[in-house]
UniProtKB/TrEMBL annotation:
Record-stated family: Belongs to the RNase PH family.
Function, in words: Phosphorolytic 3'-5' exoribonuclease that plays an important role in tRNA 3'-end maturation. Removes nucleotide residues following the 3'-CCA terminus of tRNAs; can also add nucleotides to the ends of RNA molecules by using nucleoside diphosphates as substrates, but this may not be physiologically important. Probably plays a role in initiation of 16S rRNA degradation (leading to ribosome degradation) during starvation.
Lineage, opening ranks: Bacteria, Pseudomonadati, Pseudomonadota, Alphaproteobacteria, Rhodobacterales
All copies of domain Exoribonuclease phosphorolytic, residue ranges: 10-139, 158-222
PANTHER family: EXOSOME COMPLEX COMPONENT, EXOSOME COMPLEX COMPONENT RRP41
Signal peptide stretch: none
Designated gene of the protein: rph
Origin species: Tropicimonas isoalkanivorans
Keywords recorded for this protein, A-Z: Nucleotidyltransferase, RNA-binding, rRNA processing, Transferase, tRNA processing, tRNA-binding
GO terms of biological process kind: rRNA 3'-end processing; rRNA catabolic process; tRNA processing
Binding site for phosphate: R85, G123, T124, R125
One example GO MF annotation: tRNA binding
Name of the protein in question: Ribonuclease PH
EC number(s) recorded for this UniProt protein: 2.7.7.56
Length: 237
């Protein structure tokens, strides 16, 4: 039995509220159970120096957690400096989102996606990727409406979900209690068409076999289909 009482293949409740900030070109608040992440997408007509005069666009991301997003208060990273975990997660978010972008169609401009964890209960990086895509979609919609881009630079949805082996059972969408006790921990980033972008999997305790990895991938594929449906409802609603 999972601590939440969910079935092994059951996702947490997913809601995505758009237009939650006034100034960002795209924004949403994604809630995956008790994990809540504020995602904003900001347009910048300047690209990084290594892309100047290349004709290519760029999508990058920054990630952070509010001091009381967790059970005990953390010092702000502005005070203590970015952790290695934060740097790794924001690079993952950027890589994931760029996988769904035609950078030629985007043109020589940059979109920065900021993901701020308001409340954490496991799977924050996955929620950030899923919500980050929605914010990116809304920002690109504004570019297209203004006529600044001719063809849609977003080639597909991008979403992510965590899976793991908890109490000997493969499960999807781990919350904090499951994540902290999981024997195997994995994150899957996929497109709406089911293509893999990135897989992060590690044995936290006992090793795992190929059959278990296949089961986790099957769970992830079904879970991401639910997330993509939620993304579509959010941007089309």
């Amino acid at each position: 039995m999972r601590p939440s009482g969910r079935e092994t293949n059951q996702m947490r409740p997913i809601t995505i509220e758009t237009g939650v900030t006034r100034h960002a070109e795209g924004s949403c608040l994604i809630r995956c159970g008790d994990t809540h992440v504020l995602c904003t997408a900001s347009l910048d007509e300047r690209v990084p120096p290594f892309l100047r005069n290349s004709g290519l666009g760029w999508v990058t991301a920054e990630y952070g957690m509010l001091p009381r997003a967790t059970h005990t208060r953390m010092n702000r990273e502005a005070k203590r400096g970015q952790s290695g975990r934060t740097q790794e997660i924001q690079r993952l978010i950027g890589r994931a989102l760029r996988a769904g972008v035609d950078r030629v169609a985007l043109g020589e401009r940059q979109i920065v996606v900021d993901c701020d964890v308001v409340q954490a209960d496991g799977g924050t990086r996955c929620a950030a990727i899923t919500g980050g895509w929605v914010a990116l979609r809304l920002a690109v919609n504004k570019l297209m409406k203004a006529g600044d881009v001719i063809s849609d630079p977003l080639t597909d949805h991008v979403a992510a979900v965590s899976c793991g082996v908890y109490a000997g059972q493969p499960v999807v969408d781990l919350d904090y209690r499951e994540d902290s006790d999981a024997g195997t921990d994995a994150n899957f980033v996929m497109t709406g068409a089911g293509r893999l972008i990135e897989v992060q999997a590690s044995a936290e305790g006992a090793t795992f076999g190929r059959d278990e990895l296949t089961t986790l991938m099957d769970l992830a594929e079904a879970g991401i289909a639910e997330l993509v449906a939620a993304q579509k409802a959010a941007v089309e609603g």
